[in-house]
Amino acid sequence: MNKQSIKSPPVPPQTNFVKILHGLIIISLFIMIGSGLQIYNATPVFGGKSGWSFPQWATLGGWLAGGRSWHFTTMWVFAFTLLIYGIYILLTQRWKRKFFSEQDLKALKVGKNPKRRIYSWHRLIYTGIIPVLILAIFSGLAMYKPAQFHWLSGLFINWQTLRTIHFLTVPISLLYVLVHTIMGIRAGGLRLTRSMFQP
Ligand code: HEM
To answer: What is the pLDDT of residue 199?
Structure first.
């Protein structure tokens, strides 16, 4: 195959609505992480009160009550943005066009066009973060209202497992942001990245 026949996919037009939701998810995710680490520091998940904690610069809120205020206020923005995004992609059938599909699986298994393969990886990665973000919300909800959602908390075996699972969504999300940013640039260059942020 010569270089000319290896075509890059065109940069997809992004709707302003999706750009706004995408931006809100990024901002609220970082607030959730910073304030979550502040709450973590009050009683580290690993090792109890004298366990390993995070440096002040990585946290938001100043102290436990401040961290909790940020966390519990922003969780509404975070959860509702995801909910609205979910409803939007279902109603507009966007998930069929934009999310990992059978064609992507085919491209990864037998495809010869390297650009198309990178694009399929890129779609697989951003499709894969959705269940992680939903897990972050439900495991958080199970800790926020353990009496009302005892059936939900019960799914996570015990409190320490629940805390650990909720905590693990932080490194996964941070790693995701890094890989997703790199893959976006590899898949469509800065043009694709700009298409998701420019009005
Ligand atoms: C903070 C966490 C982030 C999450 C959860 C996230 C999630 C997503 C999702 C679900 C999509 C698909 C949207 C759709 O078309 O319906 C997407 C697309 C995209 N994201 Fe992110 N994103 C995040 C951060 C970022 C960052 C930091 C960048 C770049 C600096 C970025 C760049 C892009 C680009 C360029 C697309 C368009 C992909 C395409 O149309 O092929 N994202 N993101």
So the answer is: 87
Residue nearest to atom 35 of ligand 1 (CA): 193
Pick from 60, 56, 2: which is nearest to 30 by CA? 60
d(CA 62, CA 64): 7
Average pLDDT, 10 consecutive residues per value, the chain (199 residues): 53 89 98 98 88 95 97 98 97 94 96 94 98 98 97 96 98 98 95 94
What's the chain's length in residues?
199
pTM score of the predicted model: 0.91
Which residue of 95, 126, 176 sits with most ligand 1 atoms within 8 Å of its CB, as the best mutation to test the pocket?
126
Q: For residue 33, how far is its CA from the centre of ligand 1 (angstroms)? A: 18
Give the count of alpha carbons within 13 A of 62, CB side only.
Answer: 3
Q: What is the CA(172)–ligand 1 centre distance, in A?
A: 15
